[in-house]
Amino acid sequence: xxxxxxxxxxxxxxxxxxxxxxxxxxxxxxxxxxxxxxxxxxxxxxxxxxxxxxxxxxxxxxxxxxxxxxxxxxxxxxxxxxxxxxxxxxxxxxxxxxxxxxxxxxxxxxxxxxxxxxxxxxxxxxxxxxxxxxxxxxxxxxxxxxxxxxxxxxxxxxxxxxxxxxxxxxxxxxxxxxxxxxxxxxxxxxxxxxxxxxxxxxxxxxxxxxxxxxxxxxxxxxxxxxxxxxxxxxxxxxxxxxxxxxxxxxxxxx
Length: 254
Description:
8 strands, globular, 2 domains
């Protein structure tokens, strides 16, 4: 916590917005949750994890697109006041290399806990979950990046990211990275199962919204055809062919 602010040259920052974001994360117990629930097998990695995770969060908050740009924060007085020591990009990269499937899954579980907390506070009875995908262009030969649909730079390797957001709360729920040549609906059924398992309660209705590329047998089977309603631009559609619409689809989970 910053108790006193001195308006001198050494305390000037171009990232003042970090103050509110870091305070919000701390106040809502996000840092404590990560510290408790994210456990690496190596004791030394556990010791440094929070500093590096806070570093990555700061980088994400200011919109960096590569680790090299973390250097922009190394001498920032505001970051220093939060006891965050920004290390060299190579050091941060080595830390990220410690993540495995197990620890990555721990982060996903932490994210669901944070979302459930937001949902409880909101007291919403109906929520709309948008499922969509986005292409991330890459330069070089990063692991898992292959040529696929890449409108940002045709012919380049890319990743295809699938994610889910809650429309009412403007909150990220879950997501994962896929190879660039992955079909739109791949993994969507499993994502829906995971979301329902983590947040569905008897007094909560969930609307899943996605475009026509996501409508396939796996998704229909996952939700259950007897509990399925299809909406096109807000209007209920009877005996719909799922491939015949391109936008504004809703699946109503009762």
